[in-house]
Specification:
Length: about 350
């Protein structure tokens, strides 16, 4: 798989990294803020803004017992019920069209992660150009099959998934006739740490499944995401907010506008820096060859005089014989008068 086309952008190793700003619940239930997030993302230079399409009722049950409560004391959402969390974080479905319209005005892609088949049906009505399957849904093979049948590019986040589970998801999509796949390495902790990011998985994913690969990154800052580019990340997803201080369910591990702009710039620089396997001076380095060391006459000498450490030196610039010939020429007579500053050539010896 060489590339996948999403909207007007190609995603693949030959192209600049495709960066999607994940809005999630950072709109804080304000459509005005949601549209401002799109504006800021576009100004930062990303290619897409991503939403999540669900309601609390399509995600879970309104229960407050046992596993329906977030009990992990290390979680950002500790002590809250899943239903309350999703009620706060969801994006009203009526907002999707104006948000996607604003994306189109900026020339960027608007798309979403559906969490059940009703969300897919809804997003199809809005003619989204691609779909994202979240890490927690990578084992929901009926959902993957439904999305794959749309024939649109399918981005699969692989957080927590075993190699066998990823294989099942990929086979499900391909058996539905869809090979436009992007597999994202993801660590499903919020925030995640560079230590558990395991970016070396990215080239293994690409080799194992012959897919375009990328990173869904929940770590702080941009270092992990930029480091993923030379390992084969052609698609990068980062949560995005106008200001972390404004709060919100995902704000603590979201980038702010200046950081997102820096990510877009540095990811592109990292991609440009890959170049090709090359040795020897490049065209850009040709003038720098002048600044290598070489053999130069350090004192005026007459024809017949021998070259010595006093009248021959290894110095810059690099127009004389290479320094590796020092032992070869030392002690040899010169065949003509040579002035100080003359680059030594074979014709002189």
């Amino acid at each position: 798989m060489q590339a996948v086309k999403i909207g007007g952008f190609f995603v693949g190793s030959r192209y600049r990294p495709f960066i999607a700003a994940e809005m999630s619940g950072n709109h804080n239930h304000s459509l005005e803020r949601a549209l401002a997030i799109v504006d800021a993302a576009a100004a930062a230079g990303v290619q897409a803004v991503k939403l999540q399409t669900y309601t609390a009722d399509t995600m879970t049950l309104n229960c407050r017992d046992g596993a329906f409560m977030v009990e992990d004391p290390q979680s950002l959402w500790s002590g809250r019920s899943l239903y309350d969390l999703y009620s706060q974080a969801y994006t009203p479905w009526g907002w999707h069209k104006p948000i996607f319209d604003r994306c189109r005005e900026h020339g960027i892609v608007g798309f979403s992660s559906p969490f059940d088949e009703t969300a897919v049906d809804f997003l199809e009505e809005l003619a989204v150009p691609c779909y994202k399957i979240a890490s927690f849904e990578v084992t929901d093979l009926p959902l993957i099959r439904r999305v794959a049948l749309t024939g649109k590019p399918l981005i699969l986040s692989t957080g927590m998934a075993t190699l066998a589970e990823i294989d099942e998801a990929v086979r499900t999509a391909r058996s539905a006739g869809n090979d436009q796949l992007v597999l994202l390495k993801c660590t499903s902790t919020y925030p995640s740490s560079p230590v558990n990011s395991d970016l070396l998985t990215i080239p293994h994913l690409r080799a194992s499944f012959d897919c375009v690969t990328g990173l869904s990154d929940h770590s702080l800052g941009i270092g992990v995401a930029v480091a993923a580019v030379p390992l084969g990340a052609s698609f990068i997803e980062k949560h995005f907010t106008l200001a972390r201080a404004d709060g919100g369910v995902d704000s603590a591990f979201s980038l702010e506008p200046a950081e997102l702009k820096q990510l877009a710039e540095e990811a592109e620089r990292a991609h440009q820096a890959l170049g090709r396997i090359h040795y020897g001076p490049s065209a850009a380095e040709a003038q720098s060859l002048m600044h290598r060391r070489s053999l130069y006459i350090a004192q005026d000498i007459k024809a017949g005089e021998a070259l010595t450490p006093e009248n021959l030196r290894i110095i810059r610039p690099g127009l004389g014989l290479p320094p590796k010939y020092w032992d070869v020429v030392l002690g040899k007579p010169v065949v003509c008068d040579l002035k100080q500053g003359t680059p030594l050539r074979w014709k002189h010896v």
